[in-house]
Amino acid sequence: MKILVPVKRVIDYNVKPRVKADGTGVDLSNVKMSMNPFDEIAVEEALRIKEAGKADEVIVVSVGPAKAQETLRTALAMGADRAVLVETDAEVEPLAVAKILKSLVETETPGLVILGKQAIDDDSNQTGQMLAALLGRPQGTFASKVAVEGDKVVVTREVDGGLETVSLAIPAIVTTDLRLNEPRYASLPNIMKAKKKPLDVKSPADCGVDIAPRLKTLKVVEPAVRSAGIKVADVDALVAKLKEMGVA
Ligand code: AMP
User: Looking at the predicted structure, is the pLDDT value of residue 227 above 90?
Assistant: First the structure.
């Protein structure tokens, strides 16, 4: 069985995003970019399934600019076998990414596609679900545990107020939640080895997908600055203050 893992190059999670002065988006000039954290978890899970002898190949794919090759090399250094870059400098919305992934699924025929539950730049939480719908395949989203058992994959899902376990017939789509695993670091020898692993470059047109945007961003604003708190002497003073503020 092959496992396909889509990985997105996003603004590093430690960087505080700055909104462009004209409010059209986030300023990405001279900003550190990294693999989307949920996608690192997806790569790790795919590698663990392969190491358990339940898959033979892990293929990573990214849709994005030439620089996304770095993100793919990181996944190859973690242990993925080969990579595909669908190269474009345009901003690609989740529906277009899902259509590109559908085309790759049709050529690669993976048993599992493991995506992150969301990309931390657009916070869409849509691509995995759209891919499952386009392919007509079962999906297990927000996975905190994944077990391949014969021709089924058993996914424990983090849902409001608890956990839900579902059994999906393979081929299936899984999206990862934060608690699924702790991704490994790539060792130096593996970083060197990754440079020689195959990385194919395609275009969205090769996949037969029109990536023209369907959405228009009207405005992006910084979060409101929080006002400072105050200290009160005791519970009576707290209650009095809350009453004064009209919240008690
Ligand atoms: P989103 O629906 O944008 O929140 O993204 C959910 C997941 O879809 C991500 O965690 C990735 O696994 C995958 N994905 C989204 N955009 C891309 C992209 N441009 N390239 C590769 N994978 C992507």
Answer: no
